[in-house]
Amino acid sequence: MQRPATAVYPPGAHLVERVIDDYELVWLLHGQATLVCSSPVGLSPGQLLLIPPGLPHAIDWDPRRTARHGYVHFEQSDVSTRLPDSVLVVPMSGADPLASLCAYLVHLGSTGPIALATLDYLVRLMLTAPEPPPVPAPIAAAVEHLRRSWSRLPMPRIGVAELAAAAHVSRGYLNRLFRATFDVGAAEALECLRFARAEPLLTRTDLSVAAVAAQCGFADLSHFSHRFTARYGVPPSRYAGQTSVIEHPGVSKLYRLVH
Fold it and tell me: How is the chain split into domains, by residue range?
């Protein structure tokens, strides 16, 4: 294993074709890039790239702005998981620690035992990351709209009509797709996603119930309390994590896609 590090490239920089004799992990911190090989791969922040040894490749960095990336070179013997002999790209999301492990490797900046253990865990997670389940194109468009709109609090109020417009289908067709894909209608699915965001706010913060309602996109405290009690059997003021909406397989699938 070589020392993990970061590098900065000016706009339009080009890394000439090369062949490395070890594995390299690359993750973008700023800007875009293209791995130029037999099957070019576009890269952006939030993706983790594994380049195997023996692969002729070049890298075109962002033509419009400075690009910055982290990287680490290592051998098969440095990790306990069998590595692939082809290029691999996996997404890094808030639901996994991949990005944090990459940042920690750079923070350590060493090849010592802790760095090696971190690298080994990182690679194992990368190679066992579940692939997102396939969904129809309108569902994918709706999920992307929710991901962008609900990436932070407070959650804006989104209804089925707005979601259908984002997916370029009718409300009725979107509802049928939701039932076929997630076993719940679109309106119920949207409410469940808001409840899923409310659950940890109720159990792990000192926010008032009214503040949680506002943060999670409910019209007002009365509406939130009424709908929450109907769903969970207890009012939000007495909720202690007894159950969760994401115990429903379809809601859990949607939740993973959005987050």
Answer: 5-128, 137-258
Q: SS3 for 133-185, per residue?
A: CCCCHHHHHHHHHHHHHCCCCCCCCCCHHHHHHHHCCCHHHHHHHHHHHHCCC
pLDDT digits (tens, 9 = 90+) for 154-199: 999 999 999 999 999 999 999 999 999 999 999 999 999 999 999 9
What is the strand order of the sheet 47-51 is part of? 5-9, 67-74, 23-30, 47-51, 88-91
Query: What are the beta bridge partners of residue 25?
Result: 50, 72
The domain defined by 137-258 carries CATH number 3.30.70.260: no
Query: How many angstroms separate the CA atoms of 244 and 247, rounded?
Result: 6
pTM of the model: 0.54
CA 198 to chain centre: 20
Element (H, E) at 57: strand 57-61
Please name the helix (run of DSSP H) or strand (run of DSSP E) that holds residue 15, with its range, or none. strand 14-18
Which of 1.10.3720.10, 2.60.120.280, 3.90.650.10, 1.20.140.10 would CATH assign to domain 5-128?
A: 2.60.120.280
Q: Which of 21, 16, 6 is nearest to 51 (CA)?
A: 21
Cβ-based neighbours of 121, under 8 Å, separated by 6 or more: 101
R_g of the chain, CA atoms, integer Å: 22
Distance between CA atoms of 58 and 17, rounded to whole angstroms? 4
Residue numbers of the chain with a pLDDT score lower than 50:
none
Cα–Cα separations (whole angstroms), residue 210 to 121, 239, 247: 41, 14, 25
